[in-house]
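Board notes (copied after class):
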Amino acid sequence: MGLTTYELSDGIATIRIDDGKVNALSETMLAEISARFDEAERDEAVVILTGRERIFSAGFDLRTEGEGWPPMLVAGARLAERMLSFPRPVVAACNGSAIAMGSFLLLSADHRIGADADLKLGLNEVAIGLTLPWFAIELARHRLPRPWFDRCTVTGVMIGPEEGVAAGFLDELVPPEELEERALGAARVLAGINHDAHLATKLRVRSEVLDGVRDGIARIEGDGRDW
């Protein structure tokens, strides 16, 4: 596994995405991140998901051609489903821009901490000629308050970190040099909650979005056209 790293310490697993470039979420990359979550579940660990310097993820790998798109979309949707229903808390430490599927990962985490830096957040699909997948619409509906939900989905607007908090992509901002320590502190607090109650409540609160994401997966797997 060369696109991610995994570090376990005191019940906290840090999954770092790093392809040396923009952290494009190819089917291979998504499979590797999912495998890291499997590892964290075996370790019964709270997860910190983060990226590389100045980039969280630029989204799906746009170099993927034709028939490769549906499997990549399914892999992304299944990772979102996994994060939404993960048995331990998931903290996203957003150290740089999170675009499209990169933002879907933020929308799937339990607590999102962003670096107060020159970064961009958003769902830019329509700006580049793509229709937003059904599963992504459900993620956005679940986390983004109106009118941000409508604006972000139908215009493809990219926003900065302060607007990202208002819009619902992030929960808090810290100076970039404090991000790692703040994420670790948040994970330590979450490691102390009752995880059985956390999971049971998470599944109740997120039942509608999980149903929507699963329906989105079924649409892609049906004929591959109704994304």
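Comment from the instructor: The domain at 4-223 is CATH 3.90.226.10 (2-enoyl-CoA Hydratase; Chain A, domain 1). The chain has one domain: 4-223.
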